[in-house]
């Protein structure tokens, strides 16, 4: 491709040839003409230097780096969310995007030389500060999250083991009143800890501390082995009490670092800078064409060759435009790819990776919106909280791979019994929630609960291995504006409590919460096989 510099040099040569004949002018006139040509050449070189092509490749690399930085920041947020809900407990996964983000940050810092506005430097400094602050907060989040995940994994089996000990020789050696008091305290402690993990609440924290005090008081009546279990139980319970609110506050602080906004602001600043450079280039190019027109009027003798030079320049421009079109197509393709990846990350942020169902955070948003609609329409929102009976035996007998197949089959069969507008969510482990609207009677809710029970009981095979599972379901509802005022967390907590009532009643059935709201008062009911 012939460059604009080569064309300019040819134009200068062609201008000089016809006017530099020794027989046509004296030495003085020749010197004057040479001086004039030098001035014209200097002016031409100046205008040409101001119209040299902008490095579009470098500009596009800057914009692509910004888009990649935005994508990696979104992936970082998704990693934090996965760690928060226990989908990915590896501490290294939280920082997996950071090395590449730091590399992109250094590359963007080097690109500041392409800009003139100090606002761009300030925007870049804000991006650096936001990423550094987020890195520091994520470091704090990692330590607390690891301890919290460990304690949440230890507590349920520890309490189950202690309850098993109480039904054996430990229970026989201690007074029955003491055994019953410790058993009730353990039941209340486990339920409150699980609720506190979902929604940290000061009232729940006080209840947990009271339960821990009761357990500690009963410790002296049992063997040292039970005493060690009590100490371990208190230790892990207080880890949950301390780190769950701390983790929530860290998540809020991480969200408030504003890395995405800072990157977007820097992107807009680079765009504005590049647009100004292009406009300036176009302005000087316009002056260059005008100046070339003056040269055409002054140097008629070189008109033909000058015209040919402009034709060559036009060819170069067309090739440049063609190259620009190709580059724009590549940028468009890359942008589409980044948008697809962003959509995939959004899907992962809102849905459970194993079953494809709605996750807890997205369920909370949907439930908030449903309660608002119910308040406007004077409708009823129903929530069913259930977990699987016999699922632990499947994992223990056939392994977690078979357990995953069971969870996927439960999701598929229960979903097939629901309406298109109903929501089925997985909170984690074997815990699920069904949410549906415009069901204005407890009987309708019971029918849906029975359909879900029948669907789950019908699963007798997973990957060629026999399984025997059922479900314990808790039902709660909120009606009209009064129900909307209760909030999503309270409605889920009522359904959770009703589910535990079903467990205590013998499992494999459902219980309607006493706090459920219907258009007409409905009594609490427990249904078991």
Q: How is the main sheet built?
A: 6 strands, mixed
CATH-defined architecture of the largest domain: Up-down Bundle
Radius of gyration: 36 Å
Specify the helix fraction band: over 70%
**What is the β-strand count?**
8
What's the end-to-end separation, in Å?
A: 84 Å
Overall pLDDT: 82
**Beta-strand residue fraction:** 5-15%
Order of helices and strands: HHHHHHHHHHHHHEHHEEHEEEHHEE
Structural class: alpha+beta
How are the strands of the biggest sheet laid out side by side? 2-3-1-6-7-8
CATH class of the largest domain: Mainly Alpha
How many helical elements?
Answer: 18
CATH fold type of the largest domain:
Methane Monooxygenase Hydroxylase, Chain G, domain 1
Tertiary shape: elongated
**Structural domains: how many:** 3
What does this protein look like?
- This protein has 529 residues and is of the alpha+beta class.
- It has three domains: 4-50 and 299-345, no CATH class; 54-256, Up-down Bundle (Methane Monooxygenase Hydroxylase, Chain G, domain 1), CATH 1.20.58; 360-527, 2-Layer Sandwich (Alpha-Beta Plaits), CATH 3.30.70.270.
- 73% of the residues lie in helices and 8% in strands.
- It has helices at residues 4-19, 27-50, 56-84, 91-94, 98-111, 118-166, 169-173, 176-198, 202-218, 224-256, 259-298, 303-350, 360-377, 391-398, 400-416, 442-457, 480-486, 488-504, and strands at 380-389, 423-428, 431-437, 461-462, 465-466, 470-479, 509-512, 526-527.
- A six-stranded mixed sheet has the order 2-3-1-6-7-8. A two-stranded antiparallel ribbon has the order 4-5.
- Strand 2 (423-428) and strand 3 form a beta hairpin.
- Helix 3 runs parallel beside helix 12, helix 6 (118-166) packs antiparallel against helix 8 (176-198) and helix 9 (202-218) packs antiparallel against helix 10 (224-256).
- The model is unreliable at 1-8 and 14-21 (pLDDT under 50).
